[in-house]
Request: fold
Amino acid sequence: EQIGLLVDKIIVTKPECMIAGIGVSAPGPLDAVTGHILEIATLKGWENTPIVEMLEARLGQNVAIENDGLAAALGEWRHGAGKGLTHFVYVTVSTGIGGGVVADGRLLRGRRGMACHVGHMSIDPNGPRCGCGNPGCWEAIASGTALARRAQVAMMGDPASTLHSGPQPIDAGAIFAAARHGDGTALKLVNEEARWLGIGLVNLLHLYSPEKIVLGGGLSQRLDLMRAGIEAEISAHAM
Reply:
């Protein structure tokens, strides 16, 4: 409904504006060819939703859908930190982990536009079960949600931690804030997060040999606390 109101407003206020179509980015997995959202592990209720068909009927415009990680990678490639590069990887670390890849000067989309679900590569077969159903996905271990989940367990073993005085349930922002103030448990959690991110980034370096990896999402705003740990992991294990 909000998209419809926006389109109507553009047409009314700028009648000379020709709308070629509407692009929608959404978490996946989704089928960019048929225009269906298949299932979103971090957002229930969207299973098998024909989102393109629904929006085209409502708006009277051509609609295309793209995985949000691929769309973000495309944006960074055209206008941001990946501009001018021929090979680069974008990774967003937030509620989940997603991303996109530019290889040999083109966005890698794969069959049905479903390539580059980087958050669902398994990095620990004995790790926690991911929302996708598989054990040990990078998303299940290193996302902001996973970090907060580990913090809940860690707090139980440290009654003196300042994390207890923060927002409950604890979130990633509070963990990094406590780490900046020297909280031991928070610092340990941040160091663990840097290690897990580094492990995943090493895999991406080996898979795609990019000129640059760009990190986005909420946790990227706290990169200063994790940079040394991430770089150490990459230095130790990347070919």
